[in-house]
Specification:
alpha+beta; seven-stranded antiparallel β-sheet; 35% helix; globular; binds 6-diazenyl-5-OXO-L-norleucine
């Protein structure tokens, strides 16, 4: 079976050619002011790589969408073996840890939102990393209270939280799995042990991260062994294969106890990290009630704290429901103005009120209330950008790394899984634990190190998100399911740090308000405003006239390269549709699920 997948995918990989020259030529024109407004949507693929997804995937018996076609193929295989969406998701999570090492992980954590057909109920599990017991509030500050900008929160051993992915998958399997656990790790082990072909896109990522991946010898020996000649090479991860084998035979104990836990503790001790065997043994994922709301007659099921995503998606949708959005031209200055203003309010509240609900009383009800939405709605003056300094968290930034990844699965039984998980930055902390192949996260940076000190995504925080032992850092990851008449309408999610929330919002608006097809909704340009810094980001380009209108309204407009990657599955008239976002060219949806 593996051979079959490999042969099929070799053909696919051969199709994925890229042309840097074209990329550079196009980029040259991507300056503010360039007039491209009448370009067809396909023109927006400026990455220089031919995307794996060429057309919308269709399937009657299920659908998978992930950020790597090999993981999608593994998910399909599991569904074809009779597994359900949960089984496929677990297999995908482990496979992505191998084939998409920049984001897929067992050394990180995430969230999963589910709709379970049997129980006709929605569930969500929080398998986000936790701060180690030895973590403390001022751990990234100098003695005089100033921020220590030696990258301690983003790079190296001190930046890692206690990973949650393996425990999260274990819990999901215990509750909903139908195939044996070990069956779900087989393909991940296979690709780690026997290697898999590096795509042109992945090759460039490995090259671009040469410095980060070369600092620690263990990391370098795996990810930069062939630098700079990755062409036609395979990536082998033998230690990771052995770790996965332990997890396969011992379950979650194979990670949180024994050889792996000991290796993590030893390596941490040697290098100034904090994670201990006790932290690992005590790690617990949490089943949390998902947030459920209604938008124009559709049921929105999304992730609650410690993700900020769901709270703010619901908050923004509540405000936006007051507008007849489809009476505006999509992405016209007027439409962008409304979205931008609403986003500012949401991200402003995020900075003050959002954090781990086990440590801080997050005012979810207030933020998502109709009354508060009305208050925000009446404060917005269409045609004007209210300066961010005049918007404060309700009276009660900037660069981007590329990783985190979202995957969605629907099965023939009607179960839906939407999961986003991450190492935080691309390749996380840059640390691979000696002898285990485990690339560790740098999720500690998602805490607020100190008031006024933004994290790597420019996000500000306060007491709600300050560091404490065992606490979970605030996240923006927003796995979301939208149902109509008790059937799936669509499920969506994205990587992109702070931009995840605005991307998921626009994915919802594109489909519900503008009735776009899956492909159009994915390809449409996205905008982003996160209150601070007071900058309106627009993807790809904007024409002179529109740009001037927005500047006249008071916006500081910035053109950004594409940063998010929406993975959506839709359901209509008995069929699933899937589309892997071209913004990450290896992304791929497929619904070739047999009866
Ligand atoms: O949980 C969060 O919000 C961040 N750690 C996500 C990071 C991310 O999406 C980076 N990728 N694009």
């Amino acid at each position: 079976m593996e051979k079959q997948i490999i042969n099929g995918l070799k053909i696919l990989q051969m199709k994925i050619k890229y042309n840097k020259f074209i990329f550079l030529v196009i980029l040259t024109f991507l300056t503010p002011g360039a007039v491209f407004s009448s370009q067809p949507i396909a023109y927006l693929n400026t990455s220089g790589y031919e995307p794996a997804q060429q057309e919308t995937a269709q399937g009657k018996n299920g659908m998978i969408t992930t950020q790597h076609f090999l993981a999608t193929a593994v998910g399909e295989k599991i569904l074809n073996q009779g597994g359900n969406a949960y089984d496929a998701s677990i297999a995908i999570a482990f496979t992505l840890a191998v084939v998409l090492p920049r984001a897929g992980n067992i050394g990180g954590g995430g969230f999963m939102v589910m709709y379970d057909k049997d129980t006709d109920n929605a569930y969500s599990i929080d398998y986000r990393e936790k701060a180690p017991a030895l973590a403390y509030k001022d751990m990234y500050l100098n003695d005089d209270g100033t921020f220590n900008d030696k990258k301690l929160s983003t790079f190296g051993y001190l930046s890692s939280g206690v990973p949650g992915t393996v425990a999260g998958m274990w819990e999901v399997h215990k509750k909903f799995g139908s195939l044996p656990w070990s069956e779900l790790l087989k393909d991940a082990i296979y690709y780690a042990e026997n290697g898999f072909n590096i795509t042109p896109y992945m090759e460039d990522v490995l090259k671009n991260y040469n410095q980060k991946l070369s600092y620690y010898p263990e990391t370098k020996s795996i990810f930069q062994k062939d630098f700079p000649n990755f062409t036609n090479k395979k990536l082998f991860q033998k230690d990771l294969a052995n770790t996965l084998k332990r997890i396969s035979s011992e379950g979650k104990k194979g990670f949180y106890e024994g050889y792996v836990a000991e290796s993590i503790e030893n390596d941490m001790k040697k290098n100034g990290g904090l994670i201990t065997k006790a932290d690992l043994k005590n790690y617990n994922p949490v089943w949390r009630l998902p947030l459920i709301s209604n938008y124009r007659g559709n049921k929105v099921i999304t992730m609650g704290p410690p993700s900020s995503g769901g709270v703010h998606i619901i908050q923004m949708l509540n405000v936006l429901e007051n507008y007849q959005l489809n009476s505006y031209v999509h992405n016209s200055p007027e439409y962008i103005n409304i979205l931008g203003e609403v986003m500012k309010h949401a991200y402003s509240d995020r900075s003050k009120y959002l954090g781990d609900p086990d440590f801080f009383d997050v005012p979810i009800k207030k933020i998502t209330s109709e009354t508060y939405a009305e208050e925000i709605y009446t404060s917005i003056e269409v045609g004007i950008s209210t300066p961010s300094e005049d918007i404060h968290p309700g009276m009660f930034l900037q660069q981007e790394s590329h990783e985190t990844t979202h995957f969605s699965v629907a099965d023939r039984f009607g179960n839906i899984v939407s999961s986003t998980y991450t190492l935080n930055s691309t390749f996380g902390s840059g640390v691979v634990i000696e002898g285990t192949g485990i690339l560790m996260n740098n999720e500690m940076d998602d805490f607020s190190s100190a008031p006024g000190i933004p994290n790597q995504f420019g996000l500000l925080g306060s007491e709600a998100n300050e560091i404490a032992p065992y606490k979970r850092p605030l996240s923006s990851m927003t796995p979301t399911i939208v149902m109509k008449d008790n059937e799936l309408f669509f499920t969506t999610g994205s990587p992109g740090g702070a931009r995840i929330i605005s991307a998921v919002l626009q994915s919802i608006l594109n489909i519900i308000d503008f009735e776009m097809s899956l492909e159009e909704a994915t390809k449409a340009r996205r905008i982003h405003h996160q209150w601070q810094p007071d900058v309106l980001e627009i993807e790809y380009y904007i024409d002179d006239k529109a740009s001037k209108e927005l500047i006249d309204m008071g916006y500081s407009v910035k053109i950004r390269r594409p940063l998010t990657c929406i993975q959506t599955i839709m359901y209509k008239d008995g069929k699933y549709y899937g589309y892997g976002d071209f913004r990450r060219p290896d992304a791929y949806a497929s619904g070739n699920i047999n009866d």
